[in-house]
């Protein structure tokens, strides 16, 4: 999918003659045309050349990827824009810090079948796509060995056998990468098989795609999602109110109308959302979009992301301050993931 549409990027005339693309969905074209060049990102946002070396150094560790629809929500010329900080590589990413490692959640040790992570009771996580529509600099999977976890259909069958053989499982969680970066054909195939497993009740999708490319929520997606017998939960990943524009609102309305329960998880990030006012506005805006706050994660100690860290004491203070201004149902749960624990751990 990505390879095929990447060919479009080479078209010299793409700026002057936008091509109608009848074969691919609009979102796939947007995904293929996402910015992947650190200098282009700086140029498009009016950042001067002083930002280039850092952007290139970070890009060498974890490539840049920013779709246009997300770029449009970033204030040009403002290096401290909270959305820009999430996607702009910095020289700090090359700094080695004690305790910051490649696989902070020890996921590789909990992969009993291809593309499957089973850590918690009653639910399993399936890596439905290795790719993401956006590369977030703080991502805890920035070093994940996706090549070893991108199963073929035959391998999926053995993964599905694992689910079939464990009647204690009630929920399948599609994750990634971003599961919605997979094609609707592939997702419909997978969901149809999950539906056939009688002990499964719920389908959960963890995704950032409806946020970064709202056109992803199209008729094809709503077709398979609306048709499944499984109860549907979508956990979006939004860190700042500025990420929720009108197009995101509209995508959320379509999902809600299709019977999807919408939740959100955020990561607490220095320089992005580490103050009470920002977190309060985020919760309010989420609710306007029909989304309930679910988790506020402290940063996982992944190598290259230490500059985003907010220390625990400060995180607790922020959440205490938030509780003073928000109704209880708009409060996210402040959690950390500790390898080996039976659930996320409240702070
Ligand atoms: C976070 C996570 C889940 C989901 O946990 P909830 O607390 O149910 O949201 C499931 N499996 C894995 C491997 C996870 O990391
Ligand atoms: S969308 Fe999620 S998985 Fe993908 S880079 Fe961002 S945080 Fe990581």
UniProtKB/TrEMBL annotation:
Catalytic activity: L-lysine = D-beta-lysine
InterPro entries from the UniProt entry: Aldolase_TIM, EpmB, Lys_aminomutase/Glu_NH3_mut, rSAM, rSAM_sf
Any Pfam family hit: Radical_SAM
Modified residues (N6-(pyridoxal phosphate)lysine): 344
Cofactor: pyridoxal 5'-phosphate; [4Fe-4S] cluster
Keywords: 4Fe-4S, Iron, Iron-sulfur, Isomerase, Metal-binding, Pyridoxal phosphate, S-adenosyl-L-methionine
One GO molecular-function entry: metal ion binding
Protein's name according to its UniProt entry: L-lysine 2,3-aminomutase
